[in-house]
Design brief:
Chain lengths: 374, 84
């Protein structure tokens, strides 16, 4: 009862926060779109938190954290570029369908070795497509790596380490050819850690470390950019951020094409920036607890892989933002302005939610069996 | 599975600690000297009236241009340190 009431309180605070954040600039500017957002965003969060409980049985704390980050991404440009906030809101709608799709795929489809091989080949095709069709304007890298995660997890669960390593290295090579150094690094570290966690053999862990580590180090040395100018400008941008809320009218140093994370800091202050970082940490801890309670190695590998892809993306973003890694910062997890990236992030959340549903189903089965035994 | 759970715990802990540690770097970059100057653009080197007479400073508070003639016309008594 107590946990239910505290959960309801947290939800109420979230809803009020998002309603107020959109209502205040709406009342000042009289922008009708902002009035719509002040109703649509809290209602969307409320609906998603209530309905999936009955229909898809998604993991509520995970969804609440994800929706808050998503709300922050809509909130980021609202003071300086109100129309961009509306566009970001519409970007989040298809991503939510991918959240449900990820959950359904994990809880309903049983992956065999053959289906894993087919998924791996399809993922390689997705990663090759931008090389063959150069006018392709959107990135398929995120989607391809998520699908590859399925294939690698199945192979690792069946102790087929050689195919797992082959598909992982093929994906890494294809990402590297496109000179996406950040994505290549994230994928390489994910594979090495997955091999270490899922395979009991030290030989395979060391082999994956040597191959993936060497490959990603070579890519990093070859394709890293000179980020000193970017770093200097980012340091100035951080220094100019207010602690909490910018003065009205907001004078933004950013353009609407800038990272939503930076925009959020400039408009709402460093405190909100750190809140979003804490939300990501909470999300990762929840995902870890889900993968700890699984019974099958496949589900554990899959949820750990999704956790790693999301966490390493956030880490790489922060490290490149602070100038520690000389890479162009991509986007913060769940706060991207690119629809394919958002869809892939929400699909990974769906995977973790689906694994959580499987855990609940296993517990229910245990309870039923113990009742029958008595 | 037991070893895997143990490793998942280690990986998550390391990841969360790394994320929080990188947040500290953001705090550090905020308090860098260059950042502090950027935060207060009104701070510019302004000549103090007690050292420089009012007439030598420009109205905008900038340093006056250095004229070679002024240096060459310094009297000899200026370099005389015998009285110190």
């Amino acid at each position: 009862m107590k946990s239910k009431s505290s959960r309801a309180r947290v939800c109420a605070v979230l809803l009020v926060l998002f309603a107020v954040v959109f209502l205040l600039p709406a009342s000042r500017t009289g922008n009708i779109h902002l009035y719509i957002l002040s109703v649509a965003v809290p209602c969307g969060i409320l609906l998603l938190l209530l309905l999936p409980a009955g229909i898809f049985a998604l993991d509520r704390p995970l969804i609440a954290a994800a929706m808050s980050l998503c709300g922050f991404s809509i909130m980021a440009p609202v003071l300086a570029f109100p129309d961009e906030a509306v566009v970001q809101g519409t970007r989040c709608i298809p991503a939510l369908f991918f959240l449900l799709a990820g959950s359904v795929v994990v809880r309903s489809i049983r992956f065999s070795k053959v289906s894993a091989a087919i998924t791996g080949i399809f993922s390689l095709v997705m990663l090759t497509a931008p090389l063959l069709f150069s006018p392709l304007s959107f990135s398929l890298t995120e989607g391809g790596t998520v699908l590859m995660l399925f294939a690698v997890s199945v192979f690792l669960a069946h102790r087929l380490r050689l195919p797992a390593l082959f598909f992982s290295l093929s994906a890494l090579a294809l990402i590297s050819i496109r000179q996406e150094t950040g994505s290549a690094l994230i994928w390489a570290v994910t594979v090495v850690l997955l091999f270490w966690a899922a395979s009991d053999s030290l030989f395979w862990s060391v082999l994956s470390l040597i191959l993936c580590g060497g490959f990603s180090a070579a890519v990093f040395i070859l394709f890293r950019g000179d980020s000193s100018e970017v770093y200097d400008s980012l340091v100035m941008r951080f220094a100019s951020m207010p602690l909490f809320l910018a003065e009205w009218p907001v004078k933004s140093l950013s353009s609407s094409s800038d990272s939503l994370f930076i925009l959020l800091g400039e408009q709402f202050g460093l405190i909100i920036l750190f809140c979003s970082l804490l939300l990501l940490c909470l999300l990762l801890i929840r995902a870890a607890s889900v993968s700890l309670h699984t019974r099958k190695a496949f589900h554990a590998s899959l949820s750990l892989g999704a956790l790693l892809l999301l966490g390493l993306k956030g880490l790489l973003f922060l490290l490149s933002l602070t100038g520690i890694l000389p890479l162009s910062p991509g986007s913060f997890p769940l706060m991207s302005a690119s629809i394919p990236e958002l869809c892939a992030d929400f699909f990974m959340l769906g995977i973790i939610s689906g694994v959580s549903v499987r855990n609940d189903l296993d517990l229910a089965e245990d309870a039923r069996l113990s009742m029958l035994a008595h | 599975m037991k070893a895997m759970r143990y490793r998942i715990r280690i990986i998550t802990l390391a990841l969360v600690c790394a994320l929080l540690f990188s947040a500290l770097f953001i705090v550090r970059s905020v308090f860098l000297p260059s950042g502090m100057i950027a935060d207060h653009p009104e701070i510019t080197p302004e000549p103090s009236s007690s050292v420089f007479p009012e007439s030598t400073s420009t109205p905008s508070g900038q340093w006056p241009p250095l004229l070679i003639e002024d240096v060459t016309s310094v009297p000899e008594s200026f370099f005389d340190t015998s009285g110190l």
